[in-house]
Every structure is written in C-alpha cells, then in structure tokens.
Amino acid sequence: MEIPYTVSTRPDTGLWNAKVGIWLFLASEVMLFGALFSAYIFLRLDAPLGMWPHGVLNVPVGTMNTAILIMSSVTVVLAWAALKMRRYRAYWWYMLATISCGVIFLVVKLGYEWPQKYNHFGAYIKPEELGKYEQYLGNERRAEKGMEPRLEITGHLHSQNAKEYEVALDPVNADPNNPSMDRPHFFPLPVTDKIATIEKEDVERATMFLPTHSAYFASYFTITGLHGMHVLGGVIVFIYMWLPVSKKVYQRNPEHLANRVEVSGLFWHFVDLIWIFVFPLFYLL
C-alpha cells in the first residue's frame, strides 16, 4: 500500500502531506521560541540596575557561527536545486557542506563557548559592602557620569578557602576607572594577572557563569541549548539523506527525495532564523 500525496499535491491544500506537516510543526516552534524570547525580554526589563551582565559573550565567535549557519542555509537550497536538476552528485556535495556547517556550529558552541563559561567566575558584592571594593568596581566615577553601578567582580577563580575568594580579575575590574571599560569590547580581553581578595562574608552570591549565576545565563543556556538540539536533529536528518540509502530513493523517484530535502530545508531555515534572533539579543545588546 502506497501512502498518497507524498509527491503529488493534495486537491484540498495544493500541497503534499509532508509540507503541510512541516508548516504545522514550525507554527508550534514559533510559539515555543516566541515564549522563551518574550520571557527573556521581560526578565531583562525587570532586572535591577547592575544585575544584568553585559558584554560577557565572545562576539567574534558568535559572528562566525552566524555566518556558518547562513552558509548552511544556502548550501541546503543548492542541494535541493541540484535534485530538481537531477544532478545527484552535486546534491551529495552540497548536502555534505550543509552537514559540515552544522557540525562545526555544534563543536564551536559545545566545545569552545560553553566550557569557557564553566571556568569563569563572578561574585556579586552585598550593597552595603560595595565601597570596600571600590578599587575593583569604579562606582564613584560611574555615579558621576549617571551610569548604572557595577555590583559584580568577575574573572577566573584563582583559589578559595573558608573565608575568602582569590580572583584573577577581568580587565573591567582590574582597571574599572578606564573609560574604555565602560562599554563591551568586540574582541574579548584576556583575564589579567591582578589578583583580588574578596571576603566571603561580603558576597551576596558567587558562582561560575552557569545557569545558577543569573537570569541572563539561565536564559542563555536554555535557549542556546534548545537551539543546539534542533541543530543536532537537523544534522542527523541530513546525514540520513546523505547516506547511500538516499540514492535508492532517488533512483526510484527523484522528486520524492527532492521533497524530503525541501521539507528538511524548511526546518533548517527556521533553525537559522532562530539564531538570527539569538545572536543580537545575547551577544550584542
């Protein structure tokens, strides 16, 4: 028994079954990510002054990953066009390029960006103790300029004991009165050799840059993690369509394989579109 409308269009919608299904699925995905982005925006708007991290992500790496995903959207369209022109060998290479872009994106995200957060440390100072750490915060100058205060001292955790943390400072805390530290840098600055001693009794909360650090990182890991799962799912589907089993489908009915690639490509374009929202919200704003 053959399933109808896998290649031919339905008389009621003018679409074949899988295309109807993927648009319904993408509608549910819009609601999912729309809710997450809305929650992120409201959390940010309601955050107290000085409590929302800025400029903590690697913008060049995020820019590179954005370019990689855009390139993969182009190559998946070229793969579909090659099938339409009955050029299976060209399709094979374009699909390999799409898979490679997806894998590179995941390796950069999971193997480079996320581990950096696990090694970075931040300590929020109690409001009544901020003056004690003025040399690392520079809040007097910021108050004169009408800027929001710094409440957190960040860097790499050098050592700790029962009473204090020793932190190798980020440049923003090592030289807080430098005007160039008032705005995030496009190219991230390395941790300095300057060590700050922070008494634990003066700390409101301290953690690595994990979801427990703040609403910002909770949102970051939730949204980018869910997006990464979508990228992984797309890569797995593309690998299946790239393996020799796809040639059997092509030889039986080239249009059937082209339709499968088109549906998968629509999902992939949606995944890329989500990243276009993620990149400015988390990396640039």
Fold and architecture overview:
Helix content is 59%, strand content 11%. It is α+β, with helices and mostly antiparallel strands and 285 residues long. The protein has a five-stranded antiparallel beta sheet with strand order 4-3-2-1-5.
Task: Please describe the structure with a list of short key phrases separated by commas or semicolons.
alpha+beta, 5-stranded antiparallel sheet, 9 helices, elongated, 2 domains, 285 residues, Four Helix Bundle (Hemerythrin (Met), subunit A)
What are the SSEs and their pairings?
Elements: H1 17-45, H2 59-84, H3 88-119, E1 121-125, H4 134-137, H5 139-144, E2 152-160, E3 164-169, H6 171-174, E4 195-199, E5 203-208, H7 215-242, H8 245-252, H9 254-284
Antiparallel strand pairs: 1-2, 1-5, 2-3, 3-4
In CATH, the homologous superfamily of the largest domain goes by the name Cytochrome c oxidase, subunit III, four-helix bundle
- What's the structural domain tally? 2
Q: What is the end-to-end distance? A: 55 Å
CATH architecture of the largest domain: Up-down Bundle
| Largest sheet: spatial strand order | 4-3-2-1-5
Whole-number radius of gyration? 24 Å
Give the SSE string: HHHEHHEEHEEHHH
Class based on secondary structure composition and strand pairing:
alpha+beta
The helicity comes to 55-70%
How many β strands by DSSP?
Answer: 5
* Percent of residues in β-strands: 5-15%
Summed up, the helix count is 9
CATH topology of the largest domain: Four Helix Bundle (Hemerythrin (Met), subunit A)
Largest sheet: 5 strands, antiparallel
Stretches where pLDDT is under 50 for at least 5 consecutive residues are none
